[in-house]
């Protein structure tokens, strides 16, 4: 859930010695892969590439955050690239791995996880955080949130849930507790 505090939690886990796999970063890398870009160009009627052949992130984001069918198609194309990269990194990592994956369940990557941790917050709080963090309008922030799963989805699937409607130190304490519980057990 965007704006909920995943980055803060990721930082706490990293401080506790967890190997972090950042799926957003892997997604950005995949989005520069020529095979991915060719498939995107072939399967989307919309012009999603810049003149230089790179992904137009702004146009793509607007499309996939406002059109559920286009988002499903985009994810269908990019997920295999991300999953492959995750599996390669897991093979090279130590025993304590945190997979920071906003679309963990949609991509099927939850199948390789021993435990899942979700970070959620109220929609309005998330919208405020996204607006400040990304410098976008509230309308755009709400579009992103509408394109994502709600709290109940994560509550029903995650082994641990951290609600982040309070302050930073409260979230950090929750993350520290869960990281210590998980460390060495995965």
Q: What would your notes on this structure say?
A:
The longest helix is centred in the middle third of the chain and has 25 residues, at 68-92. The chain is mainly alpha-helical. A two-stranded parallel sheet has the order 1-2. Strands 3-4 form a two-stranded parallel sheet. The protein is built from ten helices and four strands. The model has no long low-confidence stretch (mean pLDDT 93). It has a single domain (6-182), classed as P-loop containing nucleotide triphosphate hydrolases (Rossmann fold, 3-Layer(aba) Sandwich). The protein has helices spanning 6-15, 23-30, 34-43, 57-66, 68-92, 104-107, 123-134, 138-146, 151-157, 168-182; strands at 19-22, 97-100, 117-120, 160-163. Helix content is 59%, strand content 9%. The two termini are 24 Å apart. Helix 3 (34-43) packs antiparallel against helix 5 and helix 4 (57-66) crosses helix 5. The chain is globular and about 50 Å long.
Shape type: globular
- Helix % is 55-70%
CATH class: Alpha Beta
Overall radius of gyration: 17 Å
Could you tell me how far the N terminus lies from the C terminus, measured between alpha carbons in angstroms? Answer: 24 Å
Strand content: 5-15%
Structural class: mainly alpha
What is the count of distinct domains?
1
Write the H/E string, N to C: HEHHHHEHEHHHEH
Question: What is the mean predicted local confidence, pLDDT?
Answer: 93
Q: Assign the CATH architecture.
A: 3-Layer(aba) Sandwich
Query: What kind of oligomer do you see?
Result: single chain
Q: Tally the helices: what do you get?
A: 10
Counted beta strands: 4
Poorly predicted ranges (pLDDT <50, ≥5 residues)? Answer: none
Full CATH superfamily name: P-loop containing nucleotide triphosphate hydrolases
Largest sheet: 2 strands, parallel
What is the CATH third-level topology name? Answer: Rossmann fold
Side-by-side strand order of the widest sheet:
1-2
């Amino acid at each position: 859930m965007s704006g909920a505090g995943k980055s803060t939690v990721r930082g706490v886990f990293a401080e506790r010695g967890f190997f972090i796999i950042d799926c957003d970063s892997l997604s950005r890398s995949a989005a520069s892969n020529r095979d991915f870009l060719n498939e995107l160009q072939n399967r989307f009627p919309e012009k999603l590439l810049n003149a230089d052949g790179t992904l137009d992130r702004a146009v793509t984001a607007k499309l996939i955050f406002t059109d559920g069918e286009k988002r499903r198609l985009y994810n269908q194309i990019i997920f295999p690239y991300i999953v492959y990269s995750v599996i390669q990194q897991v093979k090279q990592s130590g025993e304590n791995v945190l997979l920071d994956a906003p679309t963990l369940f949609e991509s099927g990557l939850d199948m390789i996880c021993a435990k899942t941790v979700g970070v959620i917050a109220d929609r309005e709080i998330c919208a405020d955080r996204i607006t400040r963090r990304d410098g976008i309008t509230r309308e755009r922030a709400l579009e992103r949130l509408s394109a994502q799963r709600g709290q109940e989805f994560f509550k029903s699937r995650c082994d641990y849930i951290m609600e982040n409607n309070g302050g930073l130190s409260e979230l950090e304490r929750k993350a520290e507790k869960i990281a210590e519980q998980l460390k060495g057990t995965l």
